[in-house]
Every structure is written in C-alpha cells, then in structure tokens.
Amino acid sequence: MAFPNAYAQYNNSRILTATPAELTLMLYDGAIKFCNIAILACEQKNIEKAHNNIVKVERIVDYFRQTLDMKYPVAEDFERVYSYLGRRLTEANIKKDKDILEEVNQHLHAMRDTWNEVMKQNKQ
Hints:
- By secondary structure, the protein is mainly α.
- It is built from five helices and no strands.
- It has one domain: Up-down Bundle (Four Helix Bundle (Hemerythrin (Met), subunit A)).
- Helix content is 85%, strand content 0%.
- The protein has helices at residues 3-16, 20-43, 47-66, 74-95, 98-123.
C-alpha cells in the first residue's frame, strides 16, 4: 500500500515549503499532540510512553526558548513563559502528573491560538 509513503512525502513537502511562521505553528501543534499523548499515557500508567512524549514537548519548548530574539522586549515575556513551562514539564515527568500536563497543554493551546491569530492578521 503506497498511502503511508505518499503521506510522508506530502508531510515532508509541507515542512520544506512552510514559512517560518507556519513552522512555528506546526511546532506548537506538535507540542500539543505530544502533550495529549503524554496525558493519555499517564492515565494508562504507561510510564515509558509518558516520559518519551513529555521529553518531546520539553525539546520543542527548549527550541522556542533558544530561538527567542532578545532584542524585542516581548521576548522577555516569552522567556519567562517558556522557562515556567519547562519547569512544569520536568515536574510532570518526575511525578507522571497528568494535571500538570493538562495545565501545560492549556498554555500551549493559548499560545498556539494567539500565534495563529497573529498570522491571520499579518496576511491581511
């Protein structure tokens, strides 16, 4: 069946042709996806799956932090938020705490939705 290969090619093409803003949105979507998987894994007491997906979210948040352009004052606010999310993800991973993950997920959704709105306004 050629569908998985076709999907992989489409996804690869989508990433390669995306603007930086679209890539940022994809990263937020990925962080939310991995956070949802980690929440479900915690509910199912699947420690390894929870850990692996929390680490994926941590890596995305770390990437956002590392790529902040500190010449803009708003970057300091994002630095504080990303730092907070990083600490909460570490705590969630140690405790395998789904409540902390749900809190992080809410923040990620809010940030993704805000980013999406900014993208829409910049297109107009």
